[in-house]
Structures are given as structure tokens and as C-alpha cells.
């Protein structure tokens, strides 16, 4: 390629979700030549792609937004749990306030990023042939960039519409009176099937593992109502940055059996009534660590849930007598009608453990029991979560090693969940071995984004060209991430937190469960100890 066809940058940021948008804004403010590149056609990241009926964030307002006062002083949330449309409106507003569009390339899918050792630059190539040469490569691809689709026989023979939940058609297919299948009962399946059940003629939910959703207390705010008075917001964001899950609430400073039975039930009841994540993340401190504590929470959840289901078969499938896995060790969805919909005559539940799917036919789905006919099949079957965004690209570091090969051996290994040994000048947010989905999204986008800007500023000031994590630091962090997870009940559940469900993907802890304050301390201590855990390679002192 001739040099004129190559765009030279200080930094290429990949992915226009919270992390990428924040990174572009911060780096441009610091005077870097930076572009944001995105495969979709607009801002929003997960909210650009996930526009299926019922898609909404489970973090209650005002948590799920940036802390910049210029934004929150001028923005009004309409719902306590904003839906995908409101979230895309928010991104539009942010893009305008921060003047992002002039530095963003949409519809640009990056297929490879190769570290040029001679030049000390990343050579980044888009599918359409465009090439960027950039000192820094910041792939903020998030936890859900790569879809997981079942390898079912006959899947391409279906004559109706078959669609993964995150590729919901922009022209919004009419579901009225239609026969719809929803495969999967994760956070997506729970939201989607409830929304579909309100309009479809028939809905069949295919369940492999029951989710343990909590009641969502939705609120629609009037024009003069706010989730929180504006004068409290600055302190609120400061708190979020210093609390375990990146929200303004904390775990209770006591264990489950510190309380007597009556107090414990009253505590559960109060958390339940909040109608948000607090029954999961603001509860007794030992809930995710002690099997007995966990079972106590499960029992409460099970009885609340069973009380809403009329059919004993549904009770046993959706809220089993025997606890199937530790509560909260698969992502806990929120719902406001999911269980009630199973009492309707036009909603059916298939347990694919009892009657597995044999094949997809022209007309629908054949299980070992019978053939179901559908107009639409929705695959709410999840993602190659957390690492998929990185491993689906051809990313090559020193000596031509690839991220895919590296992560394929034993699972992700990173330094502080922000970079990888052997891959200089590459940093990512909300990726593997960081708090990521164990942290309110925007909080960690800001914490990690700020750290990355700080590194780049220090390098620039020192006249250095590149920085790379060392293997020792990476091993220490990987052992720590695994150690924290294995001190908890997390590994006892099968799911994407542990890398399960993707053929060939090694079972390993995908995210850091040690909480935001510990995470920040780890990032901070590597800096205060003179970037312990890093080498400065390919130095070019200018
Ligand atoms: P999840 O949480 O990975 O859920 C996927 C669901 O699909 C889950 O219930 C799976 O069952 C089910 N699944 C996957 N493959 C199959 C097959 N082959 N047959 C039947 N059922 C299947 O993805 P979501 O989209 O719901 O959520 C992703 C995250 O995005 C969410 O947690 C938020 O953090 C944002 P399983 O439990 O594996 O038995």
C-alpha cells in the first residue's frame, strides 16, 4: 500500500459503546490524533446491536451514564430502567455534546491489527481494505461482540425468520399473532420472551437452565421528576467509583447468619422490594461465598417465584425444589412479568434437557417429542462473551503471536485486565480479567479509560514510544483473578462468567470478582511502583 492510503494515528479506538466513546473524548481532549472505529452504523455499542423487543439495561437510574456534569446536568431519564431506544437517544446526546462524529468511522469492521516491531506501530486493517497505522491500539469491544449460535442440524433450512437476539432487524418485524420460539433464558431471553408474549399469537420458550430473575421495579419519570436530585449527583458518581460493584450501594457489612431468622427475612424482603440488583449485589457479604448463605437466598427467591406460577410443572422447571446452581453465579436478570406470562394459555415452556432439539426444519423445530411450527425463531443464545471481541480479530503482537492462540490455551491472561504481555501499546476496557460485567458499565469505562490516558501521557512526557506488560505481572494477575473466583461459588455454575458454552473455549474465569476498589488499587500500585509489571520496549527517546 502506498503511504497516502494509510491513515496515521496516535490511537485507534475500536467500539463505539461506553468505553470507546469515553476514550475518544478523553484522548482528543489531551491532544492526541485519535479516531473511533465501529462496525455498526451509530453509537451505542451493546445498545446499537441489542434492539430486540424488551431490551433494556438492568442497572437502575441514575447509574448507567457518564459522570461528566456537562452531560448529566442536561439530560433527563424517562425510565428507571431505560430501554434500548432511550439509551441510543442518550448516546446521540453524548455524541453531540462531546462533538464525536467528526472523529468516528462507522460501518468499519476491523479484521486485523498487527504490531510492526520495526516501526513500533500497529497496522490495523478494515474489512473494506482501509489501513490505519497507529501508535496505540485500543480495542474496547466489550463483553458481547461475538454471537453464539447453536450448531443445530438444518438451521439454514427454516423458511421463516430466524434471528439472533442481537441482530434484531431494524425494520422491527411484526409479531402480532405470530408463532414465535425463543431459545435461551439468560437476561436476553427473559426480557425478550416477556415482551414477545404481549403481542405474539403463540410463544414457546426453550429452556436449558432456569434463570433466577429478580423483580424489576420500573418507574416512568414525569418531565419534572428525576431519579436523584441534581445537587447530589457529583457525590453519587464519586461513590460509584469507590464501591465494590461500581454502583452507589454496597454489600451489607454482615453475613447471612449473623441475623436471626426474622431479621434475615425482613432484610431479604426489603432488598426484594427495591426491585433492582440489590437482592444480588447489595445483600449479605457471604452470599456469593458460602453455600449455606447462598441456599438461604435461593429459598427466598424460589418461594417468591413459585407463588407467581399456577402450574406445578412450571414451578418445578422455573424454580426447582433442588437448587440447580448457586444463586447469583449466573448473571441475574430483572423482570416485570416474565413468570406471570407462563400462566397464559398461549405460552409454552420446553425443557431441552428432557426433550432435546433434534433439528430445525423448514417449518420450525423438531425436538425428541414433536415438531413445533413457527413463523419466527429467536436465538437468545448469548455470546462468546468477554474474550470473543478480541479473539475473533486477527491481533498479532511481538513475534507474530496472536491473542486467539494465547487465550485458547488456558483462557484469558492479562495484566490487570487491561493489557496483554507480548502486545505492546494495546489496552482494552471492560474486557477479560477486569471487573467488566461485575461493575456498572460506565463506571469501569471511566476508571480504565482514565488509566489508559494516564499511561499514554506519561509515555509522551518521557519521550518513550512503547510499553508492554511482562509475563510475570500477567501471571500474578491471572492467579489473583482465579484465586478470588475460586474462593467464591462462581465456578460451581456453568455459564459465560467461567467461559462455558463455547466449543473449544477453555474453562477459565473471565472477569475479576475482587471489586472496584481492589481493582483500582492494583492499577494504581503498578504505577506508583514505577510501572512494576511492565517493560518499556522499542524505546525511542526523542
Ligand atoms: P446468556 O446469559 O449467555 O444466555 C444464553 C441463554 O441461552 C442461556 O439460557 C443458555 O442456556 C441458552 N442456550 C445457549 N445455547 C443453547 C442451546 N444450544 N440450546 C438451548 N439453550 C441454549 O446470554 P444473554 O444474551 O442472555 O446475556 C448476555 C449478557 O449480556 C447478559 O448477561 C448481560 O450481562 C449483557 P445455559 O444457561 O447455557 O444452559
UniProtKB/TrEMBL annotation:
Cofactor(s) listed in the protein's UniProt record: FAD
Keywords, alphabetical: FAD, Flavoprotein, Monooxygenase, NADP, Oxidoreductase
Molecular function GO labels: flavin adenine dinucleotide binding; N,N-dimethylaniline monooxygenase activity; NADP binding
Domain of life: Eukaryota
Family: Belongs to the FAD-binding monooxygenase family.
Name this polypeptide is given: FAD/NAD(P)-binding domain-containing protein
Species in which this protein is naturally found: Daldinia eschscholtzii
Amino acid at each position: 500500500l502506498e503511504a497516502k492510503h494509510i491513515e496515521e494515528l496516535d490511537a485507534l479506538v475500536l467500539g463505539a459503546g461506553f468505553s470507546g466513546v469515553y476514550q475518544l473524548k478523553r484522548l482528543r481532549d489531551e491532544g492526541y490524533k485519535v479516531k473511533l472505529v465501529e462496525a455498526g452504523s451509530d453509537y451505542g455499542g451493546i445498545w446499537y446491536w441489542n434492539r430486540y423487543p424488551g431490551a433494556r439495561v438492568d442497572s437502575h437510574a441514575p447509574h448507567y451514564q457518564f459522570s461528566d456534569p456537562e452531560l448529566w446536568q442536561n439530560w433527563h431519564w424517562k425510565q428507571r430502567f431505560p430501554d434500548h431506544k432511550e439509551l441510543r437517544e442518550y448516546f446521540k446526546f453524548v455524541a453531540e455534546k462531546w462533538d464525536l462524529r467528526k472523529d468516528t468511522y462507522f460501518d468499519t469492521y476491523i479484521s486485523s491489527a498487527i504490531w510492526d516491531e520495526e516501526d513500533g506501530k500497529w497496522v490495523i486493517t478494515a474489512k473494506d481494505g482501509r489501513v490505519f497505522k497507529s501508535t496505540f491500539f485500543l480495542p474496547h469491544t466489550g463483553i458481547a461482540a461475538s454471537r453464539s449460535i447453536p450448531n443445530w442440524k438444518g438451521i439454514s433450512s427454516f423458511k421463516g425468520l430466524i434471528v439472533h437476539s442481537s441482530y434484531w432487524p431494524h425494520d422491527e418485524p411484526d409479531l402480532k399473532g405470530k408463532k414465535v420460539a425463543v431459545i435461551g433464558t439468560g437476561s436476553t431471553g427473559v426480557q425478550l420472551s416477556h415482551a414477545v408474549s404481549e403481542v405474539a399469537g403463540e410463544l414457546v420458550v426453550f429452556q436449558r437452565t432456569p434463570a433466577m430473575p429478580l423483580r424489576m421495579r420500573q418507574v416512568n419519570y414525569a418531565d419534572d421528576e428525576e431519579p436523584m436530585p441534581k445537587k447530589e449527583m457529583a457525590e453519587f458518581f464519586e461513590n460509584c467509583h469507590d464501591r465494590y460493584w461500581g454502583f452507589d450501594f454496597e454489600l451489607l457489612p454482615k453475613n447471612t447468619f449473623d441475623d436471626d431468622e426474622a431479621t434475615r427475612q425482613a432484610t431479604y424482603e426489603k432488598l426484594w422490594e427495591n426491585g433492582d440488583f440489590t437482592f444480588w449485589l447489595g445483600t449479605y457479604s457471604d452470599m456469593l461465598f458460602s453455600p449455606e448463605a447462598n441456599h438461604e437466598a435461593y429459598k427466598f427467591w424460589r418461594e417468591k417465584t413459585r407463588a407467581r406460577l399456577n402450574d406445578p410443572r412450571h414451578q418445578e422447571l422455573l424454580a426447582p425444589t433442588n437448587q440447580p446452581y448457586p444463586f447469583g453465579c449466573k448473571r441475574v436478570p430483572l423482570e416485570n412479568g416474565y413468570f406471570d406470562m407462563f400462566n397464559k394459555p398461549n405460552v409454552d415452556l420446553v425443557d431441552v434437557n428432557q426433550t432435546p432439539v433434534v433439528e430445525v426444519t423448514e417449518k420450525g423445530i423438531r425436538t425428541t417429542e414433536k415438531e413445533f411450527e413457527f413463523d419466527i425463531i429467536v436465538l437468545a443464545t448469548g455470546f462468546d462473551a468477554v474474550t470473543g471481541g478480541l479473539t475473533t480479530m486477527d491481533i498479532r503482537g511481538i513475534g507474530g503471536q496472536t491473542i486467539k492462540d494465547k487465550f485458547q490455551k488456558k483462557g484469558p491472561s492479562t495484566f490487570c485486565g487491561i493489557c496483554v504481555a507480548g502486545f505492546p501499546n494495546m489496552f482494552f476496557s471492560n474486557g477479560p480479567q477486569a471487573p467488566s460485567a461485575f461493575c456498572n458499565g460506565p463506571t469501569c469505562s471511566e476508571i480504565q479509560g482514565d488509566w489508559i490516558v494516564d499511561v499514554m501521557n506519561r509515555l509522551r512526557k518521557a519521550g518513550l514510544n512503547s510499553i508492554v506488560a511482562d509475563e510475570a505481572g500477567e501471571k500474578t494477575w491471572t492467579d489473583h483473578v482465579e484465586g478470588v473466583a475460586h474462593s467464591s461459588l462462581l465456578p460451581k455454575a456453568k455459564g459465560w462468567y467461567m467461559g462455558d458454552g463455547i466449543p473449544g473455549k477453555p474453562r477459565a474465569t473471565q472477569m475479576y470478582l475482587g471489586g472496584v476498589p481492589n481493582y483500582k488499587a492494583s492499577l494504581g500500585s503498578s504505577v506508583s511502583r514505577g510501572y512494576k509489571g511492565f517493560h518499556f520496549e522499542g524505546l525511542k527517546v526523542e
